[in-house]
Model the fold of this input.
Amino acid sequence: MFYPTDTNKHGLAHDPFKAIVSPRPIGWIGSKGKDGSINLAPYSFFNAISDRPKLVMFSSAGRKHSQRNAAETGEFTCNFVSRNLAEQMNISSAAVPYGVDEFALSGLTSRQGELVDAPYVAEAFAVLECKVTEIIEPKSLSGEPSENVMVFGQVVGIHIDEAIVRDGRLDMALARPVARMGYMDYSEGSEVFEMFRPQV
Done:
């Protein structure tokens, strides 16, 4: 099958786009507002975009709480979503009013960042502390702004639970990362295989 996206007439019961672009890592974003309230929310439009410097990005459909807080304070955290925290991550996605503490709602422990004034999930196997570098509104071919707002951050500090370190590497079979697969589907990345680039 083929369909042009301007009509989006794919004939399926659900739009397949986000299922095709998968698995997608989940940016579990911890942030604090200017009013001191804390927020925790998952974003499936998230990824690392650079290693030197270490940069990450999350994309918010509309100006949601995480985007608002990151814009106000210039700081946020990205918390690793492992299989044992998937249910708590899902609870933190609830559409609650601004100022509601999703850490408490999810039964998680919030800790203050070492280098940023933003909370992180104490139970997470890994955490990235980030400072905002830019916030942009992507545009379409016609120049119209997307409904999404992209927040870019430079990683200034990294927390790692040594429980997932084996032979000097993070062991994903132990960490069991959760990814978004589209629709309401998720996957767990604990089945790992290794390939090396060919030597030409």
Notes: The radius of gyration is 18 Å. The mean pLDDT is 96.
